[in-house]
Amino acid sequence: MTTSVAAYLTWPLLVFMVVVVAIRYAFFNSSQYEIYLNHTLALMVTSNLLREHAIQTVLADHTPVSITAAQQLSLAVMIFAAAEFLGFVTLWTAHSSELARRRHRYHRATAAVLAIGFLIAATPARRAGQTLERFGGWYSVAAWALLTGIFIALAYRLLKMAIKELLRPDAKPRERLLAAGGFVIGIAVGSTSIDAVILAALEQLGWLHTVDFRLNLHGSNIFWETVGVSLIAAVPAAKAITARIGLDATSRHWRLLQPLRADMIHAVPAIAFELHTSSSRRQKTPLDLHQTTVQIRDAILQLRAYFQDTNQAQADSYLQRYAIAPTHRDAALSALQLANAVHAKQAGASPTTVDTAVILQSRSTNLEQETTELLRLARWWSHARQEAQHNWAKEMSE
Fold first, then answer.
1. Which end of the chain is more exposed for a tag (fewer CB within 10 A), N or C?
2. pLDDT digits over 47-66, tens only?
């Protein structure tokens, strides 16, 4: 089948897919998961290249491969792509990598048998120089059955894996998004595969006439499925690039906490210590972030003797001045309480007996929770610092 998608769409996206394949083989090809996914994507891109009219014309003009043969070879390549994707899914769900490898040998052997059977069954259409859809006949129905058998098996396994990931309670948003993408691809692969066989058989029986519909569907479905897989496969590369330039979550959180950290060091110099530095100037590691949170939390503990309750008038004035929403009230007031403690210490106030009821309490049990708590505090820190300074200036003038 020659792609029916416009060339101004296919070629830029094909270039994108080729770049994704090259990057993945160069930098993301160490684990068995990555190897299977890379093989899948490379074969899918190869199939799409064989479906381009310009490439089919070049092959027909300069090789023994006719346009029809190129069309059928593109479908045969997709059988092997489906086998590699089955290897990826099997490795994901198998209990051991050795078991997955053993099963994958059967996947590849099955793909070879199905591809040979498909090309044999598709021979009459190839000799007639027609697509399977237009040629028809029971040989074409058999060809569709041999072609789509492995796709249907893949769709079933992919949907099963995606549903399991979507229902996993501890799955992160990014993992759910990828699982949702896999679910959509599984639906697309399964529905188009089943339709191909059923509609071809009904056409042969004379019950339905769907040639034009199938030509339109089969001219674009593989291309868009490949685009979907490429987008999913590009996620690790995109993450690596964004991390390298400091746009990952860890680096962003580290930068957001630096103003608060700097003020805490100024208020409590004893908490300063030599920080581990990342190899990249902008990219920060979890250790960098952890060191920052330790310093901030240590400063809060050192300032505990200067904490006092914020009176209601000050709190209301502060909340109104900066139009702080009710959902941010607790974090904003905690920031003001900390800012008041800093000013009290810097003004030479005498430390008092520690009252744990007014100290900022932390319920975090890991770095992620600790960072989230301090980010809420840091969001209002500049406003709280200004408010505390305003209040101390007002008290000094009275």
1. C
2. 999 999 999 999 999 999 99
Distance in angstroms (rounded) separating the CA atoms of residues 139 and 212: 19
- DSSP letter at 280 equals S
pLDDT of residue 361: 57
The confidence band for 68, taking pLDDT boundaries of 50, 70 and 90, is very high
Q: How many CB atoms lie within 10 A of CB 258?
A: 11
Residue with tokens 């492995």: 150
Using CB atoms within 10 Å of the CB of residue 277, give its burial: 0 to 12 exposed, 13 to 18 middle, 19+ buried.
Answer: exposed
Q: What is the pLDDT of residues 178-219, one digit of tens each?
A: 788 888 888 988 888 898 899 999 989 989 888 888 888 888
C-alpha torsion sign, points 387, 390, 396, 397: negative
Angle at 54 between CA 53 and CA 56, to 5 degrees: 60
For the chain, the distance separating the N- and C-terminal CA atoms, rounded to the nearest angstrom, is: 86
Distance CA 201, CA 87 (A): 30
* The one-letter amino acid at 269: P
Closest CA to 171 of 155, 186, 182: 182
What are 312's two structure tokens?
A: 């209601």
Contact 103, 96 (CB under 8 A): no
CA distance 390 to 387: 5
Residue carrying structure tokens 């048998």? 113
Distances (CA, A) of 209 to 1, 130, 134, 143, 372: 19, 17, 11, 19, 60
CA 74 to chain centre: 28
- The answer, yes or no, to whether residue 357 has pLDDT greater than 60, is no
Rounded Cα–Cα distance for residues 18 and 22 (Å)? 6
Residue of 82, 60, 202, 189 lying closest to 140 (CA atoms): 202
pLDDT score, position 344 = 84
Please tell me the least confidently modeled range out of 27-31, 60-64, 390-394.
390-394
Please name which of 222, 93, 206 lies closest in space to residue 148, comparing C-alpha atoms.
222
Orientation angle between helical segments 286-302 and 367-379, nearest 10 degrees: 60
